[in-house]
Structure formats: structure tokens, C-alpha cells
Amino acid sequence: MFETGTGVGGTWYWNRYPGARFNSESWTYGYSFSQELLDEWNWEEHFAGQPETERYLNYVADKFDLRRDIRLKSRVTAAHYQEETRSWDLTMEDGRRYRTRLLITAAGVLSAATMPRIAGVGTFLGQSCHTHYWPKPVSFQGKRVAVIGTGATGVQTITEVAKTAGHLTVFQRTPQCCAPLHNAKIGKDEMSRIRGNNPEIFARCQETYGCFIHATDPRATHEVTQEEREAFWEKLCGAPGFGIWMGNFRGILVDRAANKLISDFLARKIRQRVKDPAVAEKLIPKNHGFGTRRVPLESGFYEVYNQPDVKPVDISETPIDRITPTGIKTSDCEYEFDLIVYATGFDAITGAFDRIDIRGVGGVSLKDKWRDGPQTFLGILVDGFPNMLMVMGPHAGLGNFPRALEYTADWVTGLIRFAHGRALTRVEATAASAVAWTEHVIESSEGLLFTEVDSWMTGISRNVDGKQVRRIMRYSGGHPAFRKRCDAVTADGYRELTLD
Ligand SMILES: Cc1cc2nc3c(=O)[nH]c(=O)nc-3n(C[C@H](O)[C@H](O)[C@H](O)COP(=O)(O)OP(=O)(O)OC[C@H]3O[C@@H](n4cnc5c(N)ncnc54)[C@H](O)[C@@H]3O)c2cc1C
Question: From the CB of 400, is ligand 1 less than 6 Å away?
């Protein structure tokens, strides 16, 4: 295992920004494969913060003696397939080289951080940090702080920074429709109860669309009266986690009228919480409906804007001209700061692949092959790239990650066992199977409102060349359907692959 970082934990090693924490319930996120691990680990909070999750992942690495197989500070810069030996040649950033029969990618969907394309970023003389590359505890005490970006990470950062900053200016391009997180500590007795329910919890996560504990309500929004509807939404808003997104009425992310009703309901909540009506309007999304972008969960985010020392700047109205040595210049004003925080997100889903020079049969580059959108079989294999197996690559279903990736890891392991058992040295998706799966992935998203919105879920990043056109990046058919399809491929003896 090669890892760029100096420690294990992936997302939870890198993202040390203030306020970084789960939006998944901790006890649904931990691994399920080891009863011993489940018995030993006690989650402290329903939605663990970054330090707790990093501790957990280190505990896992130690418990299963994984460190002897991990090379830290090892960034893979190139992976070239060699047909003669049916193997992959890897090159590291420091020039080291390795040869391997199988290349398994687990490089993350949100691991290639992006800086905004704003002139003068390098000229600022104060301190600046990207949330993904958070250096070490940073003090905001009394400082003039800018945060650029208001996605899920920005929302968490802003809420925390506002507690101590002298003055906070938030540069917002697209407001998000956030929902309350309702985090709480987990006491000893509660942890015992959770542990006792583990089998039911994991079984339920396997049944739901996104592997979360929250299952879609079978009723449609219009099947109930307005009173029932509002009461249900109040209940969801008062409950922890993604229930309001994943446990809402069916059709809320398909039916435009239903989506408008829930969006209006949540807009009313924002207006109730933000005292200045003009500020409240700035914080209400106008160009997308609730749930059509990744919903940030918040803990007091809207109240931050009631503080006299917090100012939102709508950069769709007054764009940032440039970063200056002393701060930020917009089209109508020049601001001075001690610290600039870039909560500007990621080159999502394909970014980590694009940052490696991956070449398959005949030297074809994966980046070129995916120029008009990813093409995969099951989100795991790519035709023309034999012996490369992706865990949570493009076309995987997004959701509660470990629940989904444990399945994929098992499927990949099953394929490797199958290949070893038959002394196969070459495993590849056929072009026909990749085309069929890619078409199915596209079909599965038809009618879903998120496809009409610019976001990392539709492959848009203003900060990345070639990511200005909407594409279907993930499978929208839900995890139960995904598993059924993968199981069918196994049961059929992998006949949709070319095995040699
Ligand atoms: C702030 C934040 C909060 C999140 N919250 C949730 C949540 O609540 N629930 C949820 O389900 N998901 C959440 N996610 C998604 C999260 O990424 C996944 O839950 C999970 O961490 C994915 O694990 P992974 O191992 O696939 O990828 P990652 O955790 O991203 O790990 C990938 C690793 O690959 C390494 N890497 C990449 N390229 C190379 C290379 N070329 N050479 C060597 N190493 C490389 C990276 O350094 C990284 O450590 C969140 C993501 C972020 C950024």
C-alpha cells in the first residue's frame, strides 16, 4: 500500500480543519468485518470529529498489523501496464519503482484538493491554508479571517472559526441548503446498546439507497396533507443526521414540485434563524433545490451570521478580482486579512486518478480515455486497463462510504481469489461490458434533479481544466441494485470479463 501522507487515515488524516467531523453516524461508518473490533471500539460521539476518526483508523491499522505493508510518504506518480509481463510498473514521486501484477486503486473520491483560480493567490503575505492541507492547530483568536467556500467543509469551518476570530468574512459563491446535524456524546450505556444492535444497524444500511441508516419514506410528498407533511419535516429536522435528505418522502429528488416544497420549508427555517432578512436571502439557494447538491449538516451555522463580527460577501454579485499581499480585492471593495482559509474543495471522483499518469494497453492514458466522462464496468474495472481494480472509483454509488466499500473490497477480493485459483494472469473488462455499464449508469440518473445542477457530483469544477461540462460521475441506482448486479457477475463466473 502506497500512501502520500505521513500517516494512515486518508480523508481523516488530511482534513484537520476546525470543525471537521462525520455527517454519517459514527456507529454506521466503522468497519463491520471484525466482531473483535466492534467489541473493542467505543465511539465517543454520534458524529465523530476528525481526531476521533483518525484515532480509530490508526487503531485499525495497528490491530490488524497493517503498517508493515504500508509505505508512507510514497506518492505514486505513474502506473504503466506492461503487456509482455502482464504487470504494472509504478513510479513514485521520489523516483522509486515497483512492479506489480495487480494494481488496486483506493485513492479517494475527495482527496485531490483544488485551489481557486484567482489571481494573486501566491502573493498574500499573511497566513493561508487549504482545509484539506490543514497544517496544525491554527489560532484565530482576535484575527481578521477570510473563508472562501461554503460547501460542506466551509460550513463546518465557518461555524468553528466564528467562535474565536476577531472578524470573519465569508466569501460565498453558491449558498447551500444545510440541515441540522444534532450531534451528541455517546455514553457507556448507549454504546452498549448500539453494540447490541450492530447486526440490525449494518443490515439496515445494506437495504437503503445510500447505505445510510436513513431509509426513504415510502409515501410521496403529495400523498399527505400539508399538516402531515410539515409535521414530518419538523420531525426530520429535529432528528440527527441525514434523515431529512435520505429519509424523506420518496420522489423528493425527482419531482420538481415536491422538491420546491421541501426547499421552501428549509428556506423558512433559514429566515427564522438569521435575524437580518437581507443576509438570510443571501444564504438561501436560488439556483438549486434541496438535496440536489451534497447537503452540509450544520451545528449553529446560520446563527454565526447574527454575530456582528461576521460578514457574508456574495461573490456572484461582487466577484473576487484578486488576492493581494494584504487580503482580498473584490469588484467593489478591498479587504485586509491576517488569515485566508481556502475551503475550495476537490477535483472530485476522477481527480486522484488524473494526478497519476495511468497508461493501459498500448500506452493509452486513462485521463484521455475518460476525457468525456468515466467509462467503467461496475465502477471497478476499465477495458484496456487489465489487472487494475478500483475500490470506490467513478461510477461507484456514493453514500455512507465504508458500508459501500466493504462490499466492493470483498468483490475485488473474490475476483482475485478466482483468478489465483485458476492461475489467471490477466483480468479485464470487455469493451462491451464497460459500454453497457456506463450506459446503465447514465440511465440510472435520468430524471434525477441533481443532474440539472452544477456540482462535483455532476463532474463540474471551476478550478479544474476540462471539468466545465456536466457528466454522470456516479451510479444512481442505489446500493442494493449495485450489489445485485455485482453478485450476478460473480454467479455467472465473471463471463463479462476477459480472463486469461
Ligand atoms: C471533509 C470530509 C468529510 C467527509 N465525511 C464523510 C462522512 O461523514 N461519511 C462518509 O461516508 N464519507 C465522508 N467523506 C468521504 C470520505 O472521503 C470517505 O468516507 C472515505 O474517507 C473514503 O475513503 P477512501 O479510502 O476511499 O479515500 P480517502 O480517505 O480519500 O483516502 C485516499 C488516500 O489515497 C491517498 N492517495 C491519493 N492519491 C495518491 C497517490 N497518487 N499516491 C499515493 N497515495 C495517494 C491519499 O493521500 C489518501 O490518503 C468525507 C470526505 C471529506 C473530505
Answer: yes
Nearest CA to ligand 1 atom 21: 11
Three-state DSSP string of the chain: CECCCCCCCCHHHHCCCCCCECCCCHHHHCCCCCHHHHHHCCCCECCCEHHHHHHHHHHHHHHCCCHHHCECCCCEEEEEEECCCCEEEEEECCCCEEEECCEEECCCCCCCECCCCCECHHHCCCEEEECCCCCCCCCCECCEEEEECCCHHHHHHHHHHCCCECEEEEEECCCCCCEECCCCECCHHHHHHHHHCHHHHHHHHHHCCCCCCCCCEEEEHHHCCHHHHHHHHHHHHHCCCCHHHHCCEECCCCCHHHHHHHHHHHHHHHHHHCCCHHHHHHHCCCCCCCCCCCCCEECCHHHHCCCCCEEEEECCCCCEEEECCCEEEECCCEEECCEEEECCCECCCCHHHHCCEEECHHHCEHHHHCCCCCCCECCCECCCCCCEEECCCCCCCCCCHHHHHHHHHHHHHHHHHHHHHCCCCCEEECHHHHHHHHHHHHHHCCCCHHHHCCCHHHCCCCCCCCCCCCCCCCCCCCHHHHHHHHHHHHHCCCCCEEEC
CA-closest residue to ligand 1 atom 44 = 3
Which of 11, 14, 45, 349 has most ligand 1 atoms within 8 Å of CB, for mutation? 11
The CB of 19 under 6 Å from ligand 1? The reply is: no
Of 98, 110, 183, the residue with max ligand 1 atoms within 8 A of its CB, to mutate for a pocket test, comes to: 110
- 139 Cα to the center of ligand 1, angstroms: 26
Ligand 1 atom nearest 47 alpha carbon = 8
| Test site for ligand 1: of 54, 111, 213, most ligand atoms within 8 A of the Cβ | 111
Ligand 1 in reach of 5 Cβ (< 6 A): yes
Written as tens digits, the pLDDT of the chain (500 aa) is: 999 999 999 999 999 999 999 999 999 999 999 999 999 999 999 999 999 999 999 999 999 999 999 999 999 999 999 999 999 999 999 999 999 999 999 999 999 999 999 999 999 999 999 999 997 889 999 999 999 999 999 999 999 999 999 999 999 999 999 999 999 999 999 999 999 999 999 999 999 999 999 999 999 999 999 999 999 999 999 999 999 999 999 999 999 999 999 999 999 999 999 999 999 999 999 999 999 999 999 999 999 999 999 999 999 999 999 999 999 999 999 999 999 999 999 999 999 999 999 999 999 999 999 999 999 999 999 999 999 999 998 998 888 999 999 999 999 999 999 999 999 999 999 999 999 999 999 999 999 999 999 888 888 888 888 888 898 999 999 999 999 999 999 999 999 999 99
- Ligand 1 atom having least distance to the Cα of 356: 41
Domains of the chain, by residue range, sit at: 75-112+364-499, 144-189+200-342
Distance 84 CA to ligand 1 centre (A): 34
Whether 108 is in the pocket of ligand 1, judged by its Cβ within 6 Å, is yes
Pick 75-112+364-499's CATH classification: 1.10.3210.10, 3.20.20.70, 3.50.50.60, 3.40.50.2020. 3.50.50.60
